[in-house]
Amino acid sequence: MCVILSYNKGNREERSPDMTNPSATQRSTLEYVVDSLRHAILSGRLVPGQRLVEADLTRELGVSRGPVRESFRRLSAEGLVESIPNQTTMVRRYSQLEMKELFEVRAELEALAARRTASRMNEACVRERFLQATQPIWEDHHGMSPAAYFEENRRFHQAIADECGNAKLTDFIGRLQLPMIMFQLGNAIHGEAQQESVVEHRLIAQAIVSGDADKSAQLIREHLRRASEFVDRMPADTFRP
């Protein structure tokens, strides 16, 4: 059974839409299901290769099968899920080439985001939000579990995208599915490699907070390039054929 949990937007918990409004019911129900599944995938609660079972989803989300099936089509178009005709639908698993291409594009977009975020550090509210969001990278990481690293990594990169001041850029970065990629690489990034990643996060954060746009862009580009090198070290069965 796949676990979606409730989709939280801000501080308000999203639940099934109001079925007393017939004119809005069909669309609002579909959007609710699509948003819930998308959020679960991009946050890592649903992982690459995990089957999506209609019966489980209808029960957990409190909707009929129609919106669930249509959400599969929507998310397939976004590249988040894949369906095998007459068999099953699952969270998408990337091929080795796809992962390397995604890292390359993501590195350039995040470099732009880091540059823009660094240039906004003179805005007190932006600076405060960024410092608060990235505070966990300064804590003791001795014995950090892979799951904890995965979540911290996701939040760190999201903080940079969130404060860049360009909604389209933030959206594009979010759609490149870094959480899915990192989960697929999870077995390769541990121990010393994990600690090196934490150090790199701290250097990037320092450059951003100091307002050094050029250095911020350079460091995050190098950081993601090094992360992409793990793709070549993974066994073939890690990837989609």
Automatic annotation (TrEMBL):
Under the heading InterPro entries, the entry gives:
GntR_C, TF_FadR/GntR_C, Tscrpt_reg_HTH_GntR, WH-like_DNA-bd_sf, WH_DNA-bd_sf
Report if keyword NAD is assigned.
Answer: no
Phylogenetic placement of the source organism: Bacteria, Pseudomonadati, Pseudomonadota, Betaproteobacteria, Burkholderiales
In terms of domain of life, where is this protein from? Bacteria
Q: What is this protein called?
A: Transcriptional regulator GntR family
**UniProt KW Magnesium keyword:** no
Q: Which species does the entry assign this protein to?
A: Cupriavidus necator (strain ATCC 43291 / DSM 13513 / CCUG 52238 / LMG 8453 / N-1) (Ralstonia eutropha)
One annotated GO molecular function is:
DNA binding
The HTH gntR-type domain, residue ranges? 27-94
Which UniProt keywords are present, listed alphabetically? DNA-binding, Plasmid, Transcription, Transcription regulation
Q: Which Pfam families match?
A: FCD (PF07729), GntR (PF00392)
